[in-house]
Amino acid sequence: SWTPDSFVESTVAELKAKLGNDKVIMGLSGGVDSTVAAVLLHKAIGDRLHCIFVDNGLLRKNEFEDVLDSYKHMGLNIKGVNAKDLFYKELEGLTDPEKKRKAIGKVFIDVFDAESHKVEDAKWLGQGTIYPDVIESVSVKGPSATIKSHHNVGGLPDFMKLKVVEPLNTLFKDEVRRVGKSMGIDAKLLGRHPFPGPGLGIRILGDVTAEKVRILQEVDHIFIKGLRDKGLYDDVWQAGAMLLPVQSVGVMGDERTYESVVALRAVSSRDGMTADWVHLPYDFLAEVSNNIINQVKGVNRVVYDISSKPPATIEWE
Ligand code: XMP
């Protein structure tokens, strides 16, 4: 019968046989799937697995440093690439959600392609594809998905012409977590909420600037830390904050303010296809709202999103 340990043992043996002395390159996102896939590959071929983690400037507060650190602790051969400015430049002035997604995807491909050329003789592209991704062949959005369109070779970036190795493509999400746990991956990492490839880029409605990213990172950090501190994080499938392209009037001391509105969203879901808003306790929402307005300059109003999917999506863009 299937156990995480037996899966690890047989998969590592298969990967060794399949990959021999070949090199594999892989883009990591900090997400559960790519991390577990990378650790499996690393068990099989050690430092012949070359991992790349791109800072697109749209990650959560401190996420790039934190995740890079945990990857290094796991012994992965990983290179962090700071490409923030390239992303901000490409996003400049863009307000249409699809154009923003495309811009983020394009820069990611460019950066990843350039990095992959620095690994000589790489033969394989590692991916964290899981079984639902395979059966759904639904157009998953974003960079990770763009990579998945490797089937139509020709006119593609060079790394896409590599052979693809996907050690998790028979597993469901809960099995991936169990495999990760059996290999000793940190529970905190395995329990992380899903986070979209385009990151805060699609949670800042309208055009994206470095300053807006900074504001939203602070807001998001207060919300997520609050969920963790109150033991609510694991009851929620996914949570985050949106920076709205709206200013509203407020009052601070004797002063009139005219500042940004943020929306908080927390949903329960099984697979992200449908979702319900979580009935977070009022006193928790009150505390988070106070903390955000008191601590984040530029924000004077907080609202809570009470829409389910469908008809609303989880992300606002
Ligand atoms: P929606 O907004 O479509 O989101 O209800 C469903 C789930 O997918 C995530 N999502 C993305 N993930 N790239 C990703 O890797 C994307 O472009 C993207 N857009 C949405 C979303 O966070 C939620 O978990």
TrEMBL record:
One Gene Ontology MF term: GMP synthase activity
Signal peptide: none
Top-rank EC class of the record's enzyme: ligase
Domain GMPS ATP-PPase: from-to ranges: 2-192
GO cellular component, one term: cytosol
Record bears the keyword Ligase: yes
EC number per UniProt: 6.3.5.2
Reaction equation(s) it catalyzes: XMP + L-glutamine + ATP + H2O = GMP + L-glutamate + AMP + diphosphate + 2 H(+)
Keywords: ATP-binding, Glutamine amidotransferase, GMP biosynthesis, Ligase, Nucleotide-binding, Purine biosynthesis
Function: Catalyzes the synthesis of GMP from XMP.
Subunit-level organization: Homodimer.
Name used for this protein in its record: GMP synthase [glutamine-hydrolyzing]
Taxonomic source organism: Fulvitalea axinellae
Full-protein positions shown: 193 to 509 of 509
